[in-house]
Structures are given as structure tokens and as C-alpha cells.
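W.,

You were right to be curious about this one. When I first looked at the sequence I had no strong expectations either way, so I just let the prediction run and decided to look at it fresh. Below is the sequence, 323 residues in total, followed by the output.
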Amino acid sequence: MKYRTLGRTGLDVSEIGFGAWGIGGRTVGTTSYGDTDDRTSLAALDRALDRGINFFDTSSAYGNGHSEELIGQAFASRRGRAVIATKAGYDAWDRPPDFSPAAVVASAEASLGRLRTDYIDLFQLHNPPQEALRSPELREALAGLQKAGKIRTWGVSAKSPVEAIEALGEFDVAVVQANFNMMDVRALDGLLSEVERRKAGFIGRTPLCFGFLSGTISKQTEFPAGDHRLGWSRAQLDNWIDGAADLLAAIKAAPGREGAESALRFCLAFPAISSVIPGILTPDEAEANARASDFGPLPQAAVEAVLEINRKRQFFVARPRAS
């Protein structure tokens, strides 16, 4: 496993991280990856740490806090080996977000309890509106959490690359998170260059595009009850399935483990990226995703082939019906 600096935070993170949305388990509607088994989830966390993954990204909303509880259980006795990032603003998907200073501080305190720790390495505002970031009271509350040693640094997990650029430009946040993968390269339109210019950290979300870039999801695939992919239109799902097949063929990667590794290695080809956080549900997935770091970034010719396809093709065709 190779490590990169998380911008100017002083933290070193594994370039392949652990996206912990899925291990939270099933939540209301289509807002999760369905039912999970805690023993499998804990084994996945253990395998990830053993393979050198030290960056774990979760949220108070993932499983209504259950994802945090599992991370706390897994790492309580070895806290110093894990860099833990969590988020505030949403505590559950069926309740409106709350970015008031009191709610954000309360969320941090609750996360500390579930994580069984006295500090959070990276505390992120979860899809915050710009007016929340403009609140002097909220920024003062975040500074207070830092001064008390309850968070080491804070950042923004943005809805889109455009909002991440705004968070960097208007508020000079230390870390931003946004989508980035072979079918979503919007971060190349100014975000990654701004990250480098400001010496900020960047966390690449959805590097496997919800699993589609493995090339193993077909038009006959049936997603389990509660799976968020059931909330996307049929046209969007088919576009991702066809697009993944075209991309993997262009870079000569077979569907399956090789396809997933190649998708992660594509992200690693961009130095501005501190860590990418594929969703991990099982020990085998932890092992396979960690292996991508062993092979290094995708060769430049393959990166250019992916970007050329993106110049000619639109991979986003519809908004989700639910989230």
C-alpha cells in the first residue's frame, strides 16, 4: 500500500481508502446497499487494515450511525493505526439535514461515542449548502471542536465538483470530497487543479461508480431490496453497464477483479488525489481493492483512452428517483 498526504492537514492516508456507506446496512427506502452481516463487515475492516488501508470514510447517516459503530468496534484497541473521517449534517436519510452550529457539535459528540474515540481525524460537512458554510457561528463551532482536540481538521463532502470548487475558493477548506471515476471526470474541469493550487486534500468518491466499473453488473442483475441503485432510471443503469463495457475494452481490462483494479488505478494516475474510497463490504473486496495500489497508476496511454471516450460520450443521463 502506498500513502499520500491529505493536503496540508499533516495526515498521511492510504491511496486506497475504505468507503463505509455499505457496511452501515439497510436504511429507509433506496438509500443503502441493502442488508449486511456485521461479522462480515468487521472482517472486511480487519482485512483492510491488515492490507495497509488506513483511511476509513463514514458518516452519521450511514446505517443511522451503525457504520460508525462498526468502525469503533473494529479499531477501539488500535485507534492510532486508523485515520477516521466522518460527516455531519445528515443523521438519517428520512430526516432533513441540520447544519446549525448546535446540531453539528451534537453530531460530532455522538460520532465520537459511536466510534469509541476521543478525536475524529477528519470531520466533514455532508453536502452542505453554501449559506451554511458562510455562517460565522458554524465556523466558530468547528474551530471550537478543533481547539478542544475533538477533531483534527474539517472539510466538505460536496454534492458536486462545482460545489467543491466553491468550498475551496470561498472558504479555503483543507479537504474536499467529490465523485471521480472513469465515467465521471467532472473533477478535471478545474477542481483538481484548484486542489493542487491550494495544497488541499481531495478524496475521490465512487471510484467504481457503484460497482458498475467492475464490468460484472449486467442488464439481468437484480439488486437487493433497499439498494440505492434501484432508485436510478433504467436508462441510467443501462448507460453505465454499456459504458463500463466500452471503457474496459478500451483499456484492455477484463471484467471482474481486473476491471475494478483498473478503475481504481485510473484515479491513482492523478497526483492531486489523496485517497479514493471504494465501497467495501467483504474481506475479499478489501483485499482486491488494496491490491490496486500494488500495481500503481494506470499507464498514461490507458488514461488518455478513458478521457477520449469521455469527450465523446455522456455517462450521466438521469437523476435518481430517490436518495
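Here's what jumped out at me. Residues 202 and 274 are 5 Å apart (CA to CA). And, maybe more interesting for your project: DSSP finds eleven helices and ten strands in the chain.

Coffee later to discuss?

I.
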